[in-house]
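Quick sanity check, Major facilitator superfamily (MFS) profile domain-containing protein:
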Amino acid sequence: MSNEMQEEISPTTPAETVAPSTSSQQDDGVPRTDAEERDPYHVRLEGDEDPKSKTKVTKWMAVIIICSAATCVTCTSSVASFTQRPMQEQWHVSSPVTILGISLFVEGLGLGPLLLGPLSEFYGRNFVYWSSFSLFVVLNLPVALAPNIVVYLVFRFLTGVSGAAFLSVAGGSVSDLFANEEVLLPMAIYSVSPMIGPVLGPAVSGFINQDTHWRWTYWVIVIWAGVELALLVFLVPETYVPTLETRKARKLRKSTGDEKYYSTLERSDKGLMHTIALSCLRPFEIMWYEPMALLLDIWAALLLGILYLTFEAFPTRVFGRDRGFNTQMSGLSFVGIGIGMVVAIASQPYWIKVYKEDRIPYWERKMRAERQKCMEEGEKGDKSATRKREPEPEARLLIGMVGAVLVTFGLFWFAFTTPHAIHWVVPMLATVPFGLGVIYAFISIWTFLVHAYRPYAASAMAGNSLTRCAFAAAFPLISTPMYARLGVVGATGLLAGLSALMMPLP
């Protein structure tokens, strides 16, 4: 990587923010020259036109709808866990073939952001939401009506690609709506929503498949996604500042007849294909040149892989027919993970106070004192010292330290309490700290990547998403042979050991 790029992706953002704002030239992704700032024909948003000036009701309504749509997409990935057995009987295929329904969908979720992210930079957030989610609804119809396994698998992959907008664009919408000092809580809620979906999926699928045909699982998804699409169209405003400026410039040209009005985006020399190419290349470049980003991506991938592996292990190996569980009860076995995730959300106000107040470790207080000293030196004119001595954003890894311990503890607890001689409540309780730790770990990883690799945070997150989804797609496929050879205790103990090896990372 060139020295220029090394400098640009170095940590330059205070640790008090979670996601990029869109109020400055660097934040909205379109640089503005000094001439543009002085040009009276250069259109900018003013006052109430700024998305951050919208009412709290509008902001939170948008956040809730975006989060519920993200949950819908990721829930679709795991609803296939209880449709596999009836599909095997109907189409006379093996278990590994039907497991591909989960793997291909998740792989689509990993590849989709590479395309959908750049599209939002040119056409706005809502264009990507409306077009991709419309495809998501339409492409789920062939899944529900599939006459054979080939059609089913092909369209499962395509629905994953079309639903990926909520892993690549939605975070930008949340940061568009809130100022830096307000964005912590809504961003934390959004960060958790894609993780709640996979846990909710088996419960939904279990209740549907207990007494109805497996196709109804996907009809329910079509109905749910259709409702979400209507809410997105009618209740979620456009939030991308360059797109709003372009719309304003067009209105001014039309109302005044003066063609001199323009927006920054209209004068940008970036091309769509060039941006897509960069979007595909830069995540790998960051992982290649930044070992910390690569290691955190691997850690996140392992955690998500373990989570998706449970969709195969729980119903068949742990909480299945051997314990007398029917389909509905097996689906509810994921409740413990969900409870842990809800607790993680509920505890976010505490962690926000930890970062904002003095209830932080000594090393972090020392970093903040150094930051203050750097700022004072910067005010005196020594800006180079300010940049060089800017503290790293590792403070965000504090919650990840707690998460790493909780995940490992939960997995070891679960591994050694799965024998049938032990009541099923005990291993189910072990999934609570696992779910809590997974969310803490992901919040830590995502916020670190956003801070450390700005203005290439989107590329860093795309690389993380691609790595995570690659592992999550593979793990369900290895679950059956791994649990068959090692047993429940041995296989889960192996996963716990791998998690323990990752504990030093944060």
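Posting the structure with no commentary besides this: The two ends are 25 Å apart (CA to CA).
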